[in-house]
Amino acid sequence: MGPPQEQHEGQSGSSSSQPQPSLEPGVDTKSTMILSTSWFTPKRLLAIFCVINLLNYLDRGAIASNGVNGSQGTCKGGTCKSGTGIQGDFKLSNFEDGVLSSAFMVGLLVASPIFASLAKSVNPFRLIGVGLSVWTLATLCCGFSFNFWSISACRMLVGVGEASFISLAAPFIDDNAPLSQKTAWLATFYMCIPAGYAVGYIYGGLVGSHFGWRWAFWVEAVLMSPFAILGFFMKPLQLKGFAPADSEKKLKLETAGSETEGIDDNVVVMEQIYLSGGLPMRELRRKGAGFGSGAYVNASNGKDETLSLKAEFRDKSTHEPSRSKCATTIYGQFSIFLQDVKELLLDKVFVVNVLGYIVYNFVIGAYSYWGPKAGYSIYNMANADMMFGGITVVCGILGSLGGGFLLDFVNSTISNAFKLLSFATLTGGACCFGAFLFRSEYGFCALFAVGELLVFATQAPVNYVCLHCVKPSLRPLSMALSTVAIHIFGDVPSSPLVGKVQDKIHNWRTTALILTSIFFPAAAIWFIGIFLHSVDRYNEDSEHEGSSVERTNTAPLVEENTAKTPISGQTQEC
Fold this sequence. Notes:
The protein is an all-alpha fold. The chain is built from 23 helices and 2 strands. The chain has helices at residues 42-64, 66-69, 85-89, 94-102, 104-118, 124-142, 148-176, 182-190, 192-211, 213-233, 247-255, 265-275, 281-286, 302-317, 325-345, 348-379, 384-410, 414-435, 441-455, 459-468, 475-505, 508-516, 519-529; strands spanning 74-76, 79-81. The protein has a two-stranded antiparallel ribbon with strand order 1-2. A hairpin with a 2-residue loop joins β1 (74-76) and β2 (79-81). α12 (265-275) runs parallel beside α15 (325-345), α16 (348-379) packs antiparallel against α17 (384-410) and α16 (348-379) runs parallel beside α21.
């Protein structure tokens, strides 16, 4: 007798175009994409992501503002002046204050890889809902904190919200953007970072000075709560490189009550063992399961062979220690996660891009936190929050959008992205360095604005490289690792280190010049990327050969006929 025949979806002796019951897990019998009449059009989805991103970074700007962060108490000539804001109430040193700004990294570091890996098996919008719920509760608790340690713990949990969102939002936007405007859409999303910081400066200054710093956190929690709830009720969307989230559920419904009802969960576990390298293919085929081809049972005698396989499992379980399905699944997912991380770390384009991003973010992170205080000290700006907020919001929006549209205009390629990254960072860094040499407040503001305009032009290109230098199934992990790296090696250490330098030299101008000079190594690293061999892998199949998820570039939220869609190498199940 010949080998077992594969049963493909929509093929059971006829060529009917209607979806038919399938025994293959991961095969989509009906697209989970939203109908074209749904409220969630691509542009509205982009708008939702932009507002969430804006609120996330508004919180960062608010805690850095003079109105919320405040200042230390001072004593001169026998006259003491009490401190203000968080720093004054909790009597924090500049180093402790800098640590407070970086505490969110703990939650981000722990949660980012977890959320990126779970995106393969859980509806991503549910993950975003969970993360934003944690963010909302943590921000609310910040307003009730009573000392340095309590507010630090709350800030750690804030990082969980960003972890669930930032690694998944960008791939969704990249999938749904029109082909000729992908970088522009990413620019629109990432312009919310400088805009959020800037609005946060202004928001924190106004709310903190009029109502107290605690109210700033409470209002943020109220603003984010609708989006946290929305994550639990949004219909799932199909992410490029993965099978629909409910494909496994559909499989169970289709096979319920049929002759193949006897299929045991151990069969599924065996496939996971194979995928994680735990059992050789020949051993699986010896059992007649047909793994590797995607078929679970012999098409000619599905019931008998399945029952035989099931009985063999039971017999074997009496002689060998058994592992639970949960433990096996965790082991398999962890093994795949390590393989994916290894693949990313061996990608020279990805590594060079992230290294440059780390150095760049070291400066940007310290700017965002210490900028208002440095401006107040160097130029005696009475309204430093408003001044830095205004410059950042205007230049951040224009720069981010300009960088995205420029890259689309000259042709969105990885090589062109590196050229734009190196040039914009070099010239922008030079302008910012020269700005801090000015003695005049107006001269500083003018040149610093030009520098920020150029520096923020990097936001869309750097993330474009992260998304397109890897295959689709690795994009969430690519964004997660990039986000973790730029924070843990970039803005997390930069804020306390700059605070430490300032505590030693007591000169904000010198401190700012030292910090700004770090832009130049970032430009040099990205310049190296121009000469690397790079391939845009956006349309490359996911990691298992022959697997893909068909999508359109211009209308990805429209329901498609996926009756003949091949099996995806990655399956999503709730």
